[in-house]
Give the backbone structure.
Amino acid sequence: MSKILLPAQIKYIESFRNEKDPLILEMEDFAKKHNVPILSWQAIEFMEQLIRMHLPKRVLEIGTAIAYSSIRIARNLKKKGIVHTIEKSEENAEKAKEFISKSGYGNKIKVIVGDAFNILPQLDKKYDFIFLDADKEDYKRLFDYCMVLLKKGGIIFVDNLLWHGYAATKKVPANYKTSTNYIREFNKVFTSQSSLKTTILPIGDGIGLGVKV
Ligand SMILES: C[S@@+](CC[C@H](N)C(=O)[O-])C[C@H]1O[C@@H](n2cnc3c(N)ncnc32)[C@H](O)[C@@H]1O
């Protein structure tokens, strides 16, 4: 059995976390208290490193929630970098706008309120980095739009590809069966694109990382 990333190793790595921004900590606390799903700290730290390396000018996020990831992306962008983030829940979008205003990154983040299926066909400029983090049953269809909107050399980052571990296990609880099947189907599609170099990484809930070629 692998001795990598058992609870003791996760706790050990976590002991080195040194997030100091009080707003980020407040948002993590808010998400926990209100059951808002946000990217795990491991996944967002990895994404922030990618952003620092790739320095995208135009970032698209599908699924804002309270703008936790949007703010963490925005804080690593250069002067001209912007994040367009789409959220269909008006309640989440309102909260997101509150947090964005508190963060001071209002000039870098544009929240687009609406269903991504309606918004994406209206976007005409391509993106350097796309983060897909919406409802799992919609991943396949949203991914098709992402492929059109992603620039050559651009990065696509998709969360939840291990889906609480169930994508890889035989025994799946009844209430996770349908969503697990969606993720398994998506993983096949994601990793078989001729114009995308992909990998699935066991970080957080499983990250799909693709570079458009
Ligand atoms: C997992 S949360 C996003 C978390 C956020 N990216 C973060 O890490 O901080 C998913 C969000 O996507 C939104 N969503 C789901 N399907 C959507 C769609 N088709 N269009 C726009 N938003 C969608 C949900 O309302 C929810 O707020």
Q: What stands out?
A: The radius of gyration is 17 Å.
